[in-house]
Write a structure and sequence with these properties.
Strand content: under 5%
Largest sheet: 2 strands, antiparallel
Structural class: mainly alpha
Distance between the termini: 61 Å
Strand order of the largest sheet: 1-2
Order of helices and strands: HHHEEHHHHHHHH
């Protein structure tokens, strides 16, 4: 162990029992702007060391390993690039009539359409509620009402997910995983699940809808589930409505 790693161990007053983790610490300790990541929280966040047949096996946390996260993140990034390209195209004066036609479509369906769409988006139907709210705001729908309606609709959709998983999903999951394994997952969720849920709720491209199914499967507290769902989406949609309005002004349709 090098001097940088030893000093960090002295500062935090603990000794890392895993040899593989020590190797990782030595690697990162030689890099600049890393001290925070080497703190107790940083190591626990990025490294999770397990022992298999007496050997250390360092793996990322379960959340990072889950393959279903990779697909929506990738699709979200691709969608962001596509949206930026479309926005630049729509900035062309020749496309103004198209923008006005789309605006009239939003005005026709209005907040009711947003409400129905966000309910569906709160389930596993991939409608993309953040993108919908951003676009609706860019076409001039009332800001406060849009935020409240979209947040309420999405929360209802998530509650439907929770209820279905609560009533129908648990026997299936218990059969697949075994009751002991299910209890372990519930214990992990009790310790870290809500923090993960909040992070997913605040990031547009993360599949928080899937976590609502998990909450139902694990019979997580429904009141906490509703509050966190509503608050995180309220914050996210408020930010998106602001940027959507600015985009609409920039495009000249508001």
């Amino acid at each position: 162990m090098d001097s940088n790693t030893r000093s960090l161990h002295n500062i935090h007053g603990h000794t890392d029992p895993a040899p593989t983790t020590n190797v990782a610490l030595q690697y990162f300790a030689r890099r600049p702007l890393i001290p925070f990541l080497l703190s107790n929280y940083g190591v626990k966040l990025w490294l999770h060391t397990t022992m298999i047949n007496g050997k250390a096996d360092t793996k990322p946390l379960g959340v990072v390993r889950v393959s279903w996260i990779k697909k929506p993140v990738t699709l979200g990034l691709v969608a962001a690039v596509v949206c930026l390209t479309i926005i630049l195209i729509l900035k062309d004066p020749n496309t103004r009539n198209l923008l006005l036609d789309v605006k009239s479509l939003f005005e026709s369906y209005g907040l009711l359409g947003v409400f129905i769409a966000t309910i569906l988006a709160g389930t596993v139907i991939p409608l993309g509620s953040p993108a919908l709210v951003l676009i609706a705001a860019s076409f001039g729908l009332p800001q406060v009402l849009l935020i409240v309606v979209a947040t309420t609709g999405f929360t209802i959709g998530m509650a439907i997910n929770y209820g279905l998983a609560y009533k129908l999903g648990r026997p299936y999951v218990a059969k697949k995983l075994g009751e002991d394994k299910l209890k372990e997952i519930l214990n992990l969720w009790t310790k870290r699940g809500w923090a993960i849920y909040v992070i997913f709720g605040l990031i547009p491209i993360m599949p928080v809808e899937v976590l609502s199914l998990l909450c139902g499967l694990l019979k997580a507290r429904f009141d906490v589930f509703l509050i966190l769902t509503f608050v995180t989406r309220l914050i996210l949609f408020t930010v998106l409505v602001y940027f959507g309005e600015q985009m609409g002004i920039w495009l000249g349709i508001i």
